[in-house]
Amino acid sequence: MERLDLELSRPPPLPETVEECHRVIEALWRALGEFQQIQARVEELEEQLSLGSDNSSQPPSQDSPKKRAERKGKRPTGRKKGAQVGHPGHERALVPAEAVDEVRHYFPHGRCECGGSVAVRGFRPHQVFDLPEIRYRVVEHRVYEGRCGWCGEKHQGRLPDEVPRGQMGPGLVAWIGLMTGRYHLSLREVEALLEEQWGLKFSLGAISQSQIPLQAWLGPVYNQIGEAVRKALIAHADETRHYRGRSIYWLWALTTDQMAYFLTHYSRGKGAAGELLGDFQGILVTDRHGAYNDHPQDSHQYCWAHLIRNLERIAGRKGQAGEDGERLLRAARLTVHYGKLWQQSHYPSDRYRRRLERLKALFRRELEQAAQRHGDNKTGRSCRKLLDDFPRFWTFLDHPGVPMTNNTAERALRPYVIWRKTRFFSQSHRGDCFRPMILSLVETCKRLKIGVYQTLRTICAQGMAEGEVTFRLPLPEPQPLPVASPAG
Asked: In which residue ranges is the amino acid composition biased (Basic residues) (predicted)?
C-alpha cells in the first residue's frame, strides 16, 4: 500500500500538478481509513478491558483488581466494626427443661455472715452446650449354619431384609452423601474426616462405591422434584459450565422459591433447554440466552439485571453511543425502581402501573432512535436485538407476581459454582448423574427448611430395607398469581 513519506522536521512540499494533488488526496484518504480502523480497534480493546461483573455476564470472581476496588469502593462510615448502638441484640434462647440432658444445682451458703439463715427463692439458669465424644456403633449379625441329622443337608440362617448387605449402614451412607453433596468435600477429605472424627477407616474406593446405591435411591425423589417444578406457575431457569475432565458439559437449573431441579447435559442449545423444561407451561424467567426462546413469548420474562449490565456496557462507550446508553440505562433503572414499588404495593394501585407504561413507551422510543442513529455498527445491532426481545422484558406487567430478575435461579447455581471451583471436576458419567440429583435434594430441602441429613437417612434406610424408596418431599401446591387492575 502506498504511503506518504513525510518528514516531521519540515513541512512537506506542496504538489505542483493536478496529478500530484490527486495522489496526495488518495493517500490521505487511505491513511484516514487506516486510522479509523485502528481507532475502532483501540476502542474495542478498551471496552474489553473495562468489562466486569457490572456490565457483562462475567462472574465477580473474574473481575480485575481495579474492578474489585471500584466495586468495594464504599465511603467509610467512621463507625467501628461489630454491633452498633441501638441495634437489637441476638441471644441464644434457652433450651426447654425437658430437653436438657443433665441438671446440676449450686446453692448459696445456708447462713449469712450476719448470722441469719438464707432462704432460696429462685435460680438463674446457665446452659452450656458441648459435643459428646463420638464413637461409631457396630452391630455384629451372626448367621448360623447347620446340617440335618438324618440326610446331612446343609441349612443356613439368613439376614433380615432391613440389614444392609454391605458394611455401611444408612446413617453412614447418608453422612457421606451429606459431606459430598451439601458441604462439597472431596472423597479424600471424607476419608480423612471419617478417620479423625469417627475412627473409621474406609478406602476411597469403598466411599465412592457407597454412593452408587444412593444415586438409585435418590431417583424417585429427584423425579418428584422435576415433575413438581414443571407444574409451577412461575419458574426460573439458568445454566453454567460443568466439566468432566477436560470436556465441557452444562449444568441446567429450573427453580422456584421452594424447589430446585438440576440437569447435566452435553449441550447449551435449545434441545437441552427443552429437556429441562419438559411440559412446563407456566411463566419462565431467564436471562437473554436464546435457547429458552422456544417458550411462548407472552409467558417469558427476561431478567432486568442482565439488561442493565448490557446497557452499562453501551453507556461505557465513547461519543453518541455512550450518551444513548446512559439514557437507556436511566430508563431501565427507573423501570426496576417503580416495578419494585408496584410489587411491594401488592398491585392494587394503578399509579405505579401508569408510570411503568410510560417508561415502556419511553424505552421503546429511545431504542428505536438509537438503532436508527447507529445503523449497522455494534451499538445499532445491540439496540435492534433489544427491540426484537422487547415484549419479553414486560411480561411482569401482564402477569403480576412475576419477578423482574432471575436471582432465584442464580442463587441456586451458586453453591455448585463454588463446588466446581474448590473441588475436582466430575470424572465419570456416574458423577454427572449424581451431582444434579444430590444438588436437587439439598437445595430443595434448604428452601423447604427441612433437614438434609435426616432426609437422606430416611431415603437410605428405605432403600436398604425395602429396595424401593416411597419417601416423598412435602412439596407445595402451585399458588395463583395476584391480579392487577389495568392502567387508568
From this structure: 68-82
* CB atoms near residue 181 (< 10 Å): 25
Through-space distance between the first and last CA atoms of the chain, rounded to whole angstroms: 66
Instruction: Report yes or no: 401 and 481 within 8 Å, Cβ to Cβ.
Output: yes
Q: 305, 343 in Cβ contact below 8 A?
A: no
Is 300 strand, coil or helix? strand
Closest CA to 210 of 181, 179, 167: 167
- Rounded Cα gap, residues 109 and 125, in angstroms: 18
Angle at CA 301, nearest 5°, toward 297 and 307?
A: 115
Q: What's the rounded Cα separation, in Å, for the pair 198 and 61?
A: 36
Burial 389-416 (b: 16+ CB within 10 A, else e): beebbbbbbebbbbbbbbebbbbbbebb
* CA 340, 343, 344, 349 torsion-angle sign: positive
Task: Give the whole-angstrom CA distance, residue 171 versus residue 194.
Answer: 13
pLDDT at 485 over 60: no
The answer to whether 401 and 234 have CB atoms below 8 angstroms apart is yes
Burial of 321 (0-12, 13-18, 19+ CB in 10 A): buried
Residue 112's φ and ψ, nearest 5 degrees, are -80, 165
In the beta sheet, which residues pair with residue 302? 286
- What does the block give as the cell for 435? 451431582
Query: Could you write out the DSSP letters of every residue in 304-344?
Result: HHHHHHHHHHHHTSSTHHHHHHHHHHHHHHHHHHHHHHHHH
Q: Which of 195, 179, 198 is nearest to 187 (CA)?
A: 179
Identify the H or E element spanning 408.
Answer: helix 407-422
Encode pLDDT of 21-55 as tens digits. Answer: 888 888 888 888 888 788 777 766 766 666 666 65
Question: Which pLDDT score, from 0 to 100, does residue 274 have?
Answer: 96
- Write down the H helix ranges in 160-300: 170-181, 187-193, 204-209, 211-230, 270-277
This prediction's pTM: 0.77
- Do 289 and 239 contact (CB within 8 A), yes or no? yes
Query: Coil, helix or strand for 186?
Result: coil
- Here the cell at position 86 is 441501638
Residue 1 pLDDT class (50, 70, 90 cuts): very low
Q: Three-class SS of residue 5?
A: coil
Q: Between the CA of residue 201 and those of 141, 187, 204, 213, what are the distances in Å?
A: 20, 13, 10, 20
Contact by Cβ (8 Å): 71, 60? yes
- CA distance linking residue 9 with residue 12, whole number of Å: 9
